[in-house]
From TrEMBL:
Belongs to the CapA family. This is ATP-grasp domain-containing protein. It comes from Microvirga ossetica. InterPro entries: ATP-grasp, ATP_grasp_subdomain_1, Capsule_synth_CapA, CW_Biosynth-Accessory, Dala_Dala_lig_C, Metallo-depent_PP-like. One of its GO terms (molecular function) is metal ion binding. It comes from the Bacteria. Keywords: ATP-binding, Ligase, Nucleotide-binding, Plasmid. The keyword Ligase applies. Residues 220-473 form the ATP-grasp domain. Gene3D superfamilies: 3.60.21.10, ATP-grasp fold, A domain, ATP-grasp fold, B domain. The lineage of its organism: Bacteria, Pseudomonadati, Pseudomonadota, Alphaproteobacteria, Hyphomicrobiales. The keyword Ligase applies.
């Protein structure tokens, strides 16, 4: 008789697979260890009908197609995988291994959840024993009983089907995932890239938005107050209150729980006082408060909105059957319930049709019964409500939704702040304008089901699980901690020290998992529990890189604990059989990126392995090459601070790039860290890591690229993309704290709040003591430059800064963006006008220095030809220096007519979720300091350029100076087009990092 000798869980990265597996030893002293062909055929007959997807794995195909007796281990593997796959767990790997004794065989199969995997293995062995009966009916009953118990016992630990649908897509894209213990949540990604999910909800979803959506009595008046069409609702706590509400609204009505889900307790079409009693009782069984709602005529639709954008729509149909002229309704129900999608309740996308009392009541109202034979094509409904959980199905109508209805759904999601939002909308015809056919929102869901769009009875399925995953991990976005694994007797400590030093120079958070005292970040972790240490790597939200030191015998015996590493280091020379086995595992999980500890390229390989998951241009890059410098530079020590000497004076004007604190992105999943940052430190916390740069300057100027208005202009909504707005008080408070003296408003967002928004911006800045320029209430005011006269030594200097915005046809024709004689707006780049102003100011103010501060270029791209043409014209107009912004990325510095042009400062604080990786753009920006010095009555002038790292995905919304490791990359971008007499330019260092200083005299 066959029995289980032992069961052992092997962690990811084991002898058999990169994924966790269960190794189950089968023992049969009769040494058979095989199952006859008739017995294997019995399994195929006995197993209830399954979805095609569930049966699509190798072990089952072998069992299905085999013509000979099969190994008992294979049967166990196939059944154990089938049981897990039937509840949507995406497992497929299996293998068979011989035991030490002839009577022993090992079944090895993939698991994801340890408890669910162990139970599946035990059930598989018991079902194997049932085959001895040769009774298909008995085996089937045994399977159904075991499976029902399995579903019940694992209900609190196996994620629901839609969550696992997302997990499947994550695995296809190479994004790691795992179930979290003692719950139905999963984690996607490792370390700093992790997010927790449950169906369409993630770590980034707003808890307040979720609470609002669950309280129908709150969301309904909120949305009605802003003019959205809503069903009329009243809330009742007693039957008498419900009757009063229904009479006030007018029968027929809908009665439902105030806080319910999945259609439980909902009664549609309550026609009079007599029907109210049972309807109220049903609703109050779910929620103490009951909602009485007007009945909207028409079909019910679920509209899915993701990050404020319409993505899909489906018509929801109540549970029903369609006649064929031969079968009774009861037979039609039984036939439909054989649909694999209706087989196993919560782990399938549809639910069984019920022939219960409610169905019979519903049929009676249609003049039929369960024994009625429906004529061909006639539909009989089994429910009034259209919920999937009540047996309903869906028809895709995504391509038919009228734009006016899309806008209603998008506004509802935006007002409530729901990132993934399901809007239940009822109308007679969703393809026609709302104004023509009417319709209303009856409910808004913060955790909408995705299967209503993915599994449809008619129309095109829409893969919304992939859409939800994409919003969390855009194509190419990193998802894994970078890991170096060390195995064997190589000089672990010296390698660890080298790795930590390299990681520190790159500004990476590195964890070391190895024997020894200390904690995980940057030190050693106690080796009390090997696998728990590995788990710390995946769970620690600060980690970007990790080093794992594991003895070979642990890897072979228990598994590495990771399904992938970026580099594996093994000892040189001959090795034992166990070490060779460990080496094979590491070679597999590293994708062949394995070296010996004596390899002369060890340091370079480690350096490459610890690079960010996405390199400078957004693609994986395993090479590190020196960036050529485009002109000779001399490295010096930090310049001596001579401002305390009586015969020396210095004045620094700092110009920085785009400023916006990210309010339009608060609904984005990656903005959770930003909101947490603001909750603890306010808006100014985004400037904390550049505060020393700001404090060192005497004059600070930035480009404020949002209006000080709490909402965009309604006229522009749906007309102009990427509208900006802000929290005016918090924004001004942060600018004042950072000691900004002036901001330019000459950009493509200053009028996003309309004329009133521009007026408010100018007024609030003025009240805070911050000058504004580049936009105003008419052309004459908008064209006025910012000026500041300062004394440097014994002489006066006037710094003159012109704010202007390049000409764009759409902004002139459609948006009327540019200021006119009597029209508010921004100052356009008009070289002839600027030339006249420069000519007049040269005789009007003392020693003027003219800086043009234009907003120009194309987002996230290098310098455009139009920028170069503008630069040529502006230098001809008399400019001394051009410092531009607008492309959100660092653009290089060049010489034009013997003077310097900094084409793009990029961002300073621009708190979008981060688009550098997706657009393959350099993640750097720049701060430019114009330094006037007077030494012994001789004035010198130089331009200091401080590269900044402004990729919010890396900086966590706190821009900073680049690190020593990042500086060569930024410098190469900055100087690649700089040539001419620049021999006096030099690289300098201060306590915060490196910068480039170019004496202006050297290029003039």
């Amino acid at each position: 008789m066959m029995k289980t000798a032992s069961m052992r869980v092997l962690a990811a990265g084991n002898l058999f697979s990169n994924q966790p597996v269960l190794q189950l030893a089968l023992l049969d002293h009769e040494a058979q260890l095989r199952v006859s062909l008739s017995a294997s055929r019995l399994i195929l007959k006995a197993i209830p009908v399954q979805r095609e997807e569930t049966l699509d794995f190798q072990a089952w195909k072998i069992l299905h197609d085999g013509q000979d007796p099969v190994r008992a281990a294979l049967v166990v593997e196939a059944l154990a995988l089938l049981i897990q796959r039937a509840v949507n767990i995406p497992v497929s790997f299996s293998a068979t291994a011989a035991g030490i004794a002839a009577c022993e065989s090992h079944a090895i199969f993939e698991i994801e959840n340890t408890d669910a995997g162990l139970q599946a293995g035990e059930i598989a062995v018991r079902l194997l024993a049932e085959l001895a009966s040769s009774d298909a009916g008995r085996v089937r009953r045994a399977f159904e009983k075991e499976f029902a118990a399995y579903v019940k016992s694992t209900a609190g630990t196996i994620p629901e089907a839609e969550t696992l649908d997302i997990a499947k897509r994550a695995r296809r894209r190479g994004i790691p995932w795992m179930s979290l213990p003692n719950c139905t949540f999963i984690q996607l990604g490792h370390g700093r890239y992790k997010t927790v999910m449950s169906a369409s909800e993630s770590s980034y979803s707003s808890s307040m938005a979720s609470k609002l959506a669950k309280r129908k009595q709150i969301t309904n008046p909120m949305l009605a107050a802003v003019g959205l069409p809503m069903a009329i609702q009243r809330t009742a706590r007693t039957l008498n209150e419900a009757l009063v509400a229904a009479r006030w609204i007018g029968f027929p009505v809908v009665v439902k729980p105030a806080e319910g889900k999945k259609g439980k307790g909902v009664t549609v079409g309550v026609a009079d006082d007599a029907q109210m009693g049972s309807a109220f009782k049903s609703a109050q069984a779910v929620s103490r408060r009951v909602v009485v709602e007007s009945l909207i005529p028409g079909d019910e639709y679920r509209i899915l909105v993701i990050d404020g954008q319409f993505r899909a729509a489906a018509m929801r149909r109540p549970a029903h059957v369609k006649g064929d002229g031969r079968s009774t309704i009861r037979q039609l129900i039984e036939r439909e319930n054989r649909n694999p999608e209706r087989q196993f309740g919560a782990h399938t996308n549809l639910y069984p049709l019920m022939a219960d009392r409610e169905a019979q009541t519903c049929l009676s109202e249609q003049g039929v019964s369960l024994d009625t034979v429906l004529e061909p094509g006639r539909v009989a409904f089994l429910r009034r409500v259209s919920n999937i959980s009540q047996g309903g199905d869906t028809v895709d109508v995504t391509d038919s939704v009228h734009p006016s209805v899309r806008e209603i759904a998008e506004r509802a999601a935006s007002i409530l702040g729901i990132d993934v939002c399901g809007v239940d909308y009822i109308t007679k015809d969703i393809s026609r304008p709302h104004g023509e056919v009417g319709g209303a929102i009856c409910e808004v869901n913060s955790r909408p089901g995705l299967s209503v769009h993915m599994v449809v009875s008619e129309g095109t399925p829409r893969d919304m699980a992939a859409a939800v995953l994409e919003r969390l991990f855009p194509d190419g976005a990193p998802s894994r901690v970078r890991v170096v694994a060390i195995s064997g007797d190589c000089d672990e400590k010296s390698v660890q020290r080298a790795i930590v030093a390299l990681a520190a120079r790159k500004g990476r958070h590195v964890g070391i998992v190895a024997p020894g005292p200390g904690g995980i970040r940057g030190s050693h972790v106690p080796c009390a529990s090997h696998l728990e240490q590995i788990g710390a790597i995946t769970m620690d939200g600060d980690l970007e890189a990790a080093v794992v030191v594991v003895p070979p015998h642990d890897i072979v015996r228990f598994g590495l604990g990771l399904d992938h590493v970026d580099l594996a280091i093994v000892p040189a020379g001959e090795a034992s059989a166990r070490s060779e086995a460990a080496r094979g595992i590491l070679d597999r999980v590293s994708g062949g990126n394995l070296i010996t500890a004596d390899d002369p390229q060890l340091v370079d390989r480690v350096r490459n392995a610890l690079k960010p998951a996405l390199a400078r241009h957004g693609k994986a890059d395993v090479r590190e090459t020196a960036r050529p410098q485009t002109f000779p530079v001399a490295r010096t020590s930090a310049p001596t601070d001579m401002r305390g000497r009586s015969d020396t004076a210095e004045f620094t004007a700092l110009l920085v790039g785009d400023i916006g604190f990210g309010e339009p992105y608060f609904g984005h999943p990656r903005a959770l860290e930003l909101k947490q940052l603001y909750a603890t430190g306010g808006y100014g916390s985004s400037l904390r890591r550049v505060s020393e740069l700001l404090a060192a300057a005497d004059l600070r100027i930035g480009n404020l690229e949002v209006p000080l208005a709490p909402a965009p202009d309604p006229i522009l909504q749906g007309y102009k993309k990427y509208l900006g707005w802000s929290d005016p008080d918090e924004t001004v408070r942060a600018l004042v704290k950072a000691r900004f003296d002036a901001v330019s408003l000459a950009n493509n967002h200053s009028l996003d709040g309309g004329e009133q928004g521009l007026r408010s911006t100018i007024q609030k800045l003025h009240e805070a003591g911050i000058a504004s320029f580049g936009a105003d209430m008419d052309q004459a005011a908008a064209s006025q430059p910012f000026m500041k006269t300062v004394r440097i030594g014994a002489s006066e200097r006037t710094i003159v800064v012109f704010g202007c915005f390049e000409h764009r046809s759409k902004y002139e024709r459609q948006y009327r963006w540019y200021a006119g004689p009597d029209r508010p707006g921004v100052n356009p780049i008009l070289p002839e006008i600027i030339a006249a102003q420069i000519k007049a100011l040269r005789v009007a103010v003392p020693s003027p220095f003219f800086i043009i501060y234009p907003h120009w270029g194309t987002d996230y791209l290098d310098v455009q030809q139009s920028q170069r043409e503008y630069a040529r014209q502006l230098m001809s107009a008399g400019a001394d220096l051009i410092v531009g912004h607008g492309a959100h990325v660092l653009q290089g510095v060049e010489q034009v007519a013997g003077r310097l042009v900094v084409y793009g400062l990029g961002n300073f604080v621009w708190n979008s979720p981060g688009r550098y990786t997706k657009l393959q753009a350099t993640p750097y920006s720049l701060a430019a300091a114009v330094c006037f010095r007077c030494v012994d009555d001789r004035e010198t002038l130089s331009l200091r350029l401080y590269p900044l790292l402004t990729d919010n995905a890396v900086t966590k919304f706190q821009s900073r100076r680049v690190s020593a490791a990042e500086f060569p990359d930024a410098l190469a971008v900055l100087t690649r087009n700089l040539d001419g007499p620049t021999g006096k330019a030099g690289l300098h260092e201060d306590p915060r990092g490196s910068y480039l200083e170019i004496p202006v005299d050297a290029v003039r």
